[in-house]
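Action item from last week, closing it out:
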Amino acid sequence: MRFTLFCLPVAVLFLPVIGHLERNRELDSVATMAEGSKADGSLIGLAYTDPMHLVKHTVIRQAQPEVIALGSSRVLSFRSFYFDEPEGFYNCGRSVGKVRDFREFLESYPGKKPRLILLGLDQDFLGGDADDADSPPRSYEAPDAGYGSRLAKGTKAFYDTLKDDGVESGEALPGTESFFGRNARIANEGYRPDGSYLYGRTLRRKDDYLFASTLSRIDKGKGRFKTAEKINTGSLEELGRFLGLCADEGIHVVAFLPPYASPVHDRLLKDKGNYPHVFSLHSELSPLFEKLGFKLFDFSDLRSVGSNDFETYDGFHASEVAYLKLLAIMAAGDETLRGELNAPLVGSLLSSPHSARQLVEEVEEAFPQSPSR
């Protein structure tokens, strides 16, 4: 009787959550997600846990791509069909979260190393606290967390989200039965089989394109918009070690500083002295890249790729339309990259994109806007 009374609160706490998580395939294993994504194109859009760096490591172990995109979420708009050999490309966006992760990622890369890396260098990776350069890198060899561990983390995240009124109601969308995660099943939001990201929720809502949330983060000076007196020396040195490793492995690197929406860029510019890692980074890094025969492009200002502010998902994530424009610019300046692209298709997509946010229509947009031509 006492045991039953003890278990009752636990059951009340866990059973509804287990049902929610299981119904939305939030607890499937890393291996199952990797296999399902590749086998039938299922989106992976988890709402309560985030093992995507392990999922992506599993995918590259199986697929052995020869061209990859590497960086934070700000490289997730690169798509496989831009390339002559789509199956040879994989987007490893969000596999890294700081400069220290780059070298660890490459050293633990399973099997044959890629021959080309499209490297997104978030400006804030090279600013802020020196702690970023000294903290341990992300682990890519960690085993898939067991069901119990995933359940515990998912339950905590569920109740944290519930407390903040963030649990979305609604039924799964038609055709999403094989998708993984709440975000994928109710919003068509998540990682595609090529590792890129579909912003289904953003595409379905009305946006004023004023970037108030991002501008507020700048005003607070926290997170990725934390101010700095100088470029982080430790991160510079660590980046140099990573690039040296790429050169030793025969990997060609084409890197870029990702774009900010123009109001965001202009707001940072007003406080230029506190953002040397935004406005001095290209000139600081270029000699290192040139010495190794690599290329570095500065697209910090979205206008530099000929895009308007409709071609964004928020103040620091540009759309796939803008990213194809910047990819074409990089290819024009780098012979190796140019040789990998499907030039006729890229030209066709750029001449007639579906909207400012979608090259081809995958999700019906609530308020589609026109891109710059």
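Closing note: The radius of gyration is 21 Å.
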